[in-house]
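FAQ: What does the model actually see?

It sees only this:
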Amino acid sequence: MHKRQLDAVVISDVHLGTYGCHAHELLQYLRSIQPRLLILNGDIIDIWNFSKRYFPAAHLEVISEICHLAGSGTRVVYITGNHDELLRKYSNLTLGNFQIADKLVMEINGKMCWIFHGDVFDATTKGWAKVLAKLGGKGYDLLILLNSFINWTLKLLGREKMSFSKKIKAGVKKAVAWIDNFEQTAAELAIEKRYDYVICGHIHQPQQRCISTDKGSVMYLNSGDWVENLTALEYECNEWKLYHFDESKPDAMPAITRLRKEKPKPDVVTEEVMLYIHSLALDY
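And it is asked to produce this:
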C-alpha cells in the first residue's frame, strides 16, 4: 500500500475504549501515512470511561499501529488531555521515538507552534464539575451508541446519516458561544506569547482560521476528533491543512496529496519544551 509521506500529523480526541470511537477508520488512516512527526494531542485513550468489558480488537490495533509508526522512524509525541490525565504523572518520559508531554512548543520552517490539548481552559474538568463532566461523558457515549444504531437503520433505508450531538451543539447558543470563547482565549494567549500557530483539541470542533486582535494575529488550528468528525491536521509543503476522512470513499486517496522532491525539516525544540511541560498552569 502506498503511504503518503508527511512532515507532521496531529490527531486528538480518539477516545479509545468508548462506543463512539471510529477505530476502524482511524486505523485505515494511520496505515495510509508515514509522517516524520505524529502528535497525539490528548484524549487518545479514554481513561475516564475505560471498561474492561469494552475494548475491541480494532482499538488495540490503533495502539499497535502507533507503536509500529514509532518503530519505523516516526517521532511520536503524546500530549495528555483530561480524559487521559492519569498519564500526566509520566510527563517528560521518553522511550526511543516516543515521548509524553503536557504541551509542546515546536519550530517548523521558522514558524513557532504552541500545541496543547485545551482542557486547561475548561472549568468543567476541575473539582465537582469534573464529576458531572464524567457523568455527562457516559451520557454522551450512550447518545453516540444510539446515533450509530439509527444511522445503521438510515443506511438500510438508503437515507443520509445524521449526527445528534452536532445538531445539539449547533442548536444550543451557549455551546456555540463556549466554542467561540475557547478559540478566542487560545488565540489571544498565543498572540501574547508571539506564536505563529496555536493547535488544540478537546472541543471536538475541527477548525483552521486566522484570529486577529489589536495586539496581532495567529493561526488557530483544531484537529477535531475521531468520534464525530474524523479529522486530523497535516503539515506538508510548508502549510497546515485540515484532513477529513471520507467514509463514503474509504479507499480513496485524499485530495491534498502532493509530490515533491525535498521535505522541510520540522525541528522540535526539545530542550525548550521541557521548560514548558512541567506545569499545566498558563500565564494569563
